[in-house]
Amino acid sequence: MIFPLGDFHFPDAASRLYPHTAQRPWVLEIGFGDGRFWPHHAADFAEPPNYLGVELSGVSLLKAQRRLKAAGLDNAILTKLPADVLLREVVPHGGLDRIVVNFPDPWPKAGHLDHRLLRAPFFSLAASRLKAGGAVLLTTDHDEYFEFACQAARDSGVMTVDLADPPPAALETKYALKWRDLGLAPQHARFTPTAHPDVPHGDIHPYPEDPAHVPHAILSLPATFTPAAPGQPFEKRTARAGGWTVILLDLYASLRVGGWVALAHVVEGELTQEVLVGITAREDGSHLVRLAKFGGPIITPGVKAAVGAVTDWLEERGGQVTHRGY
Ligand SMILES: C[S@@+](CC[C@H](N)C(=O)[O-])C[C@H]1O[C@@H](n2cnc3c(N)ncnc32)[C@H](O)[C@@H]1O
Q1: According to a count of CB atoms within 10 Å of the terminal CB, is the N or C end of the chain lower?
Q2: 105 C-alpha vs ligand 1 centroid, how far in Å?
Q3: Is 57 in the pocket of ligand 1 (CB under 6 A)?
Q4: What is the predicted pLDDT for the residue at 42?
Q5: Is 105 tagged catalytic?
Q6: SS3 136
Q7: Ligand 1 centroid vs 30 CA: distance in angstroms?
Q8: Following DSSP, what letter does each residue of 85-118 receive, concatenated?
């Protein structure tokens, strides 16, 4: 089953995600590629553990979904997100039994080390989301990254590092086979938490059922209001604060309801969202600026700021704001 971010709760629970198998162990695989690991590994269990797979590549997601379906693994959820976002916002404290990382991208250039997944903050986050007795399992052919990850785990102060043989299924992935053909031998480490730090979830919520709780503003626009002079393009603008950047990219006229729709790009750490903010006339002549449900946006400080950015933009064009609900 593929879950977009908007299908999750923040944080979520095994009992909601796997209602029929909630008592089974829960495994997260980060960067599952074309999805070969889990069908191989799950076959080692009489009852396959609950599986959560996270990937950045949409093509990989579809390939993996086909494999899981063919293997009859119906207690498996795949999602296309940065691993950090899933682990921080969706996985509950002490929720997971295993986090598996097979052949992570090594980012070998000196200037790119910040892109590596397995750095000390990752290990603190992982320790907070693992159960007592849980572990992170790393298999990689990249010796330098392997040493880097082991050192990062030690530096986190919350993990012990044990070297071991990889699980056989980790030697059957696409990258395992690729490196085996080149004569490279993988290394394997098991990182076990010695403490479970309280790494908090962020200020992130599903799109509210109640329209009154959707980020919005009400304003009166001047009778002469036009969004731009004829022939003038919408001028892109950027707003930044603490943890977010909002770029208002464009504005479209709505032919159905009258009014406009603004397109905003919102960046908060690893999380990016494209959201639509509607500007529609109300019966009393005022206008409602409101986050649209389209695309399944998640309510975050940055998304609220996108509604604020559209409101500010209208205010600069003569709008009188009477209510801010964001
Ligand atoms: C080298 S491939 C390995 C794929 C697979 N594990 C295998 O062994 O064949 C690394 C994978 O990690 C994914 N990836 C990289 N960074 C990620 C992140 N932050 N969150 C989730 N997936 C990520 C990439 O899209 C890529 O598919």
Answers
A1: N
A2: 6
A3: yes
A4: 96
A5: yes
A6: strand
A7: 7
A8: HIIIIISPTT-EEEEEEES-----SGGGGGG-S-
Provide the CATH number for the domain around residue 51: 3.40.50.150
The string of pLDDT tens digits covering residues 91-127 is: 999 999 999 999 999 998 988 999 999 999 999 999 9
Instruction: Look at residue 191 in the predicted model and tell me its pLDDT.
Output: 98
Nearest CA to ligand 1 atom 4: 33
Task: Let me know if residue 241 belongs to a domain.
Answer: yes
Does any domain span residue 201?
A: no
Q: Which residue's entry shows tokens 């908090």?
A: 200
Q: What CA–CA distance (Å, rounded) separates 36 from 31?
A: 11
> Annotated binding site for S-adenosyl-L-methionine: which residue ranges?
29, 55, 105
Q: What tens digit of pLDDT does each residue of 194-207 get?
A: 999 999 999 999 99
Among the three residues 138, 162, 193, which one is the final residue of a domain in this structure?
Answer: 193
Domain hosting 265: range is: 211-325
| 15 shares its domain with 164 | yes
Any atom of ligand 1 within 6 Å of the Cβ of 83:
yes
Same domain, 107 and 27: yes
Average pLDDT of the residues of the chain: 95
Do 185 and 240 belong together in one domain?
no
Q: Are residues 132 and 51 in the same domain?
A: yes
Q: Is 61 in the pocket of ligand 1 (CB under 6 A)?
A: no
pLDDT band at 148 (very low <50, low <70, confident <90, very high): very high
Nearest CA to ligand 1 atom 23: 31
Please indicate, yes or no, if residue 268 is contained in any of the structural domains. Answer: yes
Nearest protein CA to atom 14 of ligand 1, as residue: 31
Who contacts 46 (Cβ-Cβ below 8 Å, separation ≥6)? none
Q: What angle separates helix 120-129 from helix 143-156, to the nearest 10 degrees? A: 60
- Asked whether residue 34 falls in the same domain as residue 138, the answer is yes
Catalytically annotated residue among 105, 155, 203, 312: 105
The Å distance, Cα 82 to ligand 1 centre, comes to: 10
Same domain, 181 and 242: no
Q: What is the pLDDT of residues 246-279, one digit of tens each?
A: 999 999 988 877 799 999 999 999 999 999 999 9
- Residue 60 Cβ < 6 Å to ligand 1: yes
One-character DSSP codes across 74-88 = -SEEEEES-HHHIII
Domain tally, the chain: 2
* pLDDT(231) > 80: no
